[in-house]
Design goal:
The protein is of the alpha/beta class and 161 residues long. It contains 5 helices and 5 strands. Strands 2-1-3-4-5 form a 5-stranded mixed sheet, with helices on one face. The termini are far apart. Bound molecules: zinc ion (ZN). Zinc ion binds at residues 35, 37, 60, 88, 91-93.
Protein backbone atom coordinates (compact mmCIF):
# COMPACT_ATOMS: atom_id res chain seq x y z
CA UNK A 1 0.00 0.00 0.00
CA UNK A 2 1.33 3.44 -0.84
CA UNK A 3 1.96 5.91 1.96
CA UNK A 4 -0.88 8.09 0.68
CA UNK A 5 -3.34 5.18 0.76
CA UNK A 6 -2.24 4.39 4.29
CA UNK A 7 -2.95 7.98 5.29
CA UNK A 8 -6.39 8.02 3.68
CA UNK A 9 -7.21 4.67 5.24
CA UNK A 10 -6.25 5.85 8.70
CA UNK A 11 -8.39 8.93 8.18
CA UNK A 12 -11.57 6.85 7.98
CA UNK A 13 -11.16 5.72 11.57
CA UNK A 14 -10.07 9.15 12.74
CA UNK A 15 -12.94 11.07 11.20
CA UNK A 16 -15.56 8.87 12.82
CA UNK A 17 -14.06 9.31 16.31
CA UNK A 18 -13.07 12.97 16.10
CA UNK A 19 -14.55 15.65 18.32
CA UNK A 20 -15.83 18.57 16.27
CA UNK A 21 -14.22 21.81 17.44
CA UNK A 22 -16.20 24.69 15.94
CA UNK A 23 -14.17 27.68 17.12
CA UNK A 24 -11.08 28.41 14.97
CA UNK A 25 -9.60 30.46 17.84
CA UNK A 26 -7.21 28.40 19.98
CA UNK A 27 -9.02 28.17 23.33
CA UNK A 28 -5.80 28.55 25.36
CA UNK A 29 -4.63 31.53 23.26
CA UNK A 30 -1.38 29.70 22.52
CA UNK A 31 0.88 29.29 19.53
CA UNK A 32 3.71 26.77 19.61
CA UNK A 33 6.53 27.21 17.09
CA UNK A 34 8.61 24.07 16.77
CA UNK A 35 10.71 21.88 14.49
CA UNK A 36 9.29 19.46 11.95
CA UNK A 37 11.31 16.65 13.59
CA UNK A 38 9.28 13.41 13.54
CA UNK A 39 10.17 12.65 17.17
CA UNK A 40 8.21 15.59 18.57
CA UNK A 41 4.56 14.90 19.38
CA UNK A 42 3.72 18.49 20.25
CA UNK A 43 0.23 17.89 21.65
CA UNK A 44 1.28 14.99 23.87
CA UNK A 45 4.53 16.61 25.02
CA UNK A 46 2.75 19.75 26.21
CA UNK A 47 -0.55 18.27 27.37
CA UNK A 48 -2.49 20.02 24.63
CA UNK A 49 -5.75 18.98 23.01
CA UNK A 50 -7.47 19.68 19.72
CA UNK A 51 -8.64 23.28 19.46
CA UNK A 52 -6.32 24.62 22.17
CA UNK A 53 -3.24 25.89 20.29
CA UNK A 54 -1.77 26.78 16.95
CA UNK A 55 1.21 24.58 16.10
CA UNK A 56 3.59 26.09 13.55
CA UNK A 57 6.43 23.89 12.37
CA UNK A 58 9.47 24.24 10.14
CA UNK A 59 13.01 22.89 10.02
CA UNK A 60 14.61 23.92 13.30
CA UNK A 61 11.59 25.65 14.82
CA UNK A 62 13.10 28.99 13.78
CA UNK A 63 11.36 32.35 13.43
CA UNK A 64 11.30 32.96 9.69
CA UNK A 65 9.29 35.42 7.67
CA UNK A 66 6.56 32.86 7.14
CA UNK A 67 6.35 32.17 10.88
CA UNK A 68 5.88 35.90 11.41
CA UNK A 69 3.15 35.94 8.79
CA UNK A 70 1.31 33.14 10.60
CA UNK A 71 1.82 34.72 14.03
CA UNK A 72 0.47 38.08 12.81
CA UNK A 73 -2.76 36.24 11.97
CA UNK A 74 -2.66 34.10 15.14
CA UNK A 75 -2.41 37.15 17.36
CA UNK A 76 -4.59 39.70 15.57
CA UNK A 77 -7.28 37.50 14.07
CA UNK A 78 -7.35 34.42 16.28
CA UNK A 79 -6.66 35.73 19.79
CA UNK A 80 -3.24 34.24 20.50
CA UNK A 81 -1.39 36.09 23.29
CA UNK A 82 1.30 33.54 24.20
CA UNK A 83 3.98 32.15 21.88
CA UNK A 84 6.32 29.29 22.79
CA UNK A 85 9.34 28.64 20.57
CA UNK A 86 10.37 25.03 21.16
CA UNK A 87 13.67 23.88 19.65
CA UNK A 88 15.07 20.44 20.42
CA UNK A 89 18.18 18.40 21.07
CA UNK A 90 19.72 16.37 18.20
CA UNK A 91 18.21 18.79 15.67
CA UNK A 92 19.36 18.43 12.07
CA UNK A 93 19.95 22.18 11.95
CA UNK A 94 22.36 22.13 14.89
CA UNK A 95 26.06 21.99 14.15
CA UNK A 96 25.73 22.60 10.41
CA UNK A 97 26.23 25.71 8.30
CA UNK A 98 24.20 27.39 5.58
CA UNK A 99 27.01 26.52 3.13
CA UNK A 100 26.82 22.81 4.00
CA UNK A 101 23.04 22.71 3.67
CA UNK A 102 23.14 24.68 0.43
CA UNK A 103 25.67 22.21 -1.01
CA UNK A 104 23.65 19.23 0.24
CA UNK A 105 20.28 20.42 -1.05
CA UNK A 106 21.24 22.50 -4.09
CA UNK A 107 18.90 25.17 -2.68
CA UNK A 108 20.25 28.68 -2.43
CA UNK A 109 18.34 29.41 0.76
CA UNK A 110 19.04 30.61 4.27
CA UNK A 111 18.48 27.55 6.48
CA UNK A 112 18.70 29.20 9.91
CA UNK A 113 21.26 26.76 11.34
CA UNK A 114 21.62 26.53 15.13
CA UNK A 115 25.06 26.86 16.71
CA UNK A 116 23.81 27.09 20.26
CA UNK A 117 20.20 26.60 21.40
CA UNK A 118 20.23 29.29 24.08
CA UNK A 119 21.62 31.80 21.61
CA UNK A 120 19.23 30.79 18.79
CA UNK A 121 16.23 30.95 21.13
CA UNK A 122 17.21 34.40 22.38
CA UNK A 123 17.60 35.54 18.79
CA UNK A 124 14.17 34.20 17.87
CA UNK A 125 12.49 35.61 20.97
CA UNK A 126 14.11 38.98 20.16
CA UNK A 127 12.69 38.89 16.64
CA UNK A 128 9.23 38.24 18.09
CA UNK A 129 9.44 40.93 20.77
CA UNK A 130 10.69 43.53 18.31
CA UNK A 131 8.05 42.91 15.64
CA UNK A 132 5.72 45.91 16.10
CA UNK A 133 2.73 44.04 14.72
CA UNK A 134 3.06 41.29 17.37
CA UNK A 135 2.08 43.70 20.12
CA UNK A 136 -0.97 41.55 21.12
CA UNK A 137 1.46 38.80 22.16
CA UNK A 138 2.08 39.29 25.88
CA UNK A 139 4.22 36.26 26.74
CA UNK A 140 7.02 34.82 24.60
CA UNK A 141 8.94 31.80 25.75
CA UNK A 142 11.89 29.81 24.37
CA UNK A 143 12.39 26.20 25.45
CA UNK A 144 14.40 23.15 24.39
CA UNK A 145 12.74 19.72 24.09
CA UNK A 146 15.01 16.73 24.73
CA UNK A 147 14.10 14.15 22.06
CA UNK A 148 15.57 11.34 24.17
CA UNK A 149 14.01 12.00 27.59
CA UNK A 150 11.00 14.02 26.43
CA UNK A 151 11.83 16.68 29.02
CA UNK A 152 11.69 20.40 28.38
CA UNK A 153 14.21 23.00 29.55
CA UNK A 154 12.98 26.54 30.04
CA UNK A 155 15.56 28.88 28.45
CA UNK A 156 14.15 32.35 27.99
CA UNK A 157 10.90 34.15 28.74
CA UNK A 158 9.62 37.64 28.06
CA UNK A 159 6.40 38.92 29.66
CA UNK A 160 5.12 42.35 28.81
CA UNK A 161 2.20 44.28 30.22
ZN1 LIG B 1 14.90 19.81 14.44
Amino acid sequence: MSEISRLLDANHGYASARANVRDPKPSRHLAIVTCMDARIDVFAALGLHLGEAHVLRNAGGRITEDMLRSLAISSHVLGVDTVVVMQHTKCGLAGVTDEQLQAQTGADLGFYPILDHAEALREDVDILTSAPYLEPVRVISGVVFDVESGEITDVVRVERH
